[in-house]
Amino acid sequence: MTELGPALTGLALGLTASAAWTLANISITAAVRDLGPLWPVWIGQAIGAALLALALPWFPASEGVIPWGWLVFSGVNAAIAYVTMFRAFEGGPVSVTSPIIAGWALVASLVAVAMGEALPWLRALGGLLVLIGAMATAARGSTNTDNTWRRSRADTLGSAALSALTFGLMIVGLGPVAKALGPIASILAVWAVEWAVLLPFLIADRARLRSATPRMLGPIVLFALGETAGFLAVDIGGMVSPMAIVGPAASVGSLFTVIMARYVLKEAVRPELYLWSALVVAGIALLGVS
Prior knowledge:
By secondary structure, this protein is mainly α. It has helices spanning 6-35, 38-54, 68-91, 94-101, 104-114, 121-140, 153-181, 183-204, 206-209, 217-240, 243-250, 253-263, 272-287. The longest helix is centred in the first third of the chain and has 30 residues, at 6-35. The two termini are 25 Å apart.
């Protein structure tokens, strides 16, 4: 790995994360449309947590003081982010909702600026590109006659926007937790808080779980594998290469998802959607510039 050099290694791991998260997004869509957004979140993350736990011997938990406030903040936002992401995937075309959800990078950057971080002009330009790309995707990505719209456009796009907001806030809260616990243990801790938040809703929705069929397990397992591999790729990449290289490469997943939605899910994708998705990716890349 090190023979490639830190920059190329980080780039390769970032692109690996993009591919993994694309697999997660595409594979989970069928499950959430049959089982709803709640249970696929928990089942997929439970499998992913078991896989992450296997990596703890190589990335043991640190012994820092746990920032409980940030942990709860990140876990609550994670619960909202994942459920609304799955609700968006359930309600409308993944090719439309995924680039909007990718706007989490803009949210995270704006919060960082509000907390005192400098805003170089390249980051400001990146934020503008993310905003333009997301708004254009929402307005022009697909049509209401497309049979992949299962809920109203307002409901679906609102869920995608809320997911982008809360994913951005989750990332902000995850930073202090990761510094205290390490990359693997911090994810497990945030997911544990998320599960505690979701538990009452899972119990209330238990009747839907009875309708689950064995064919739903495959997509959920693929989601777990993709989500876990993506997190690991980014974590390892950040250890060997600057995150300014790894992060932008990992953001290409939103464009990958649009392409896969067209050819795997057979969604009706307007040609200009590739442009809007590319704008989101370019914007996220500039937001990663320090």
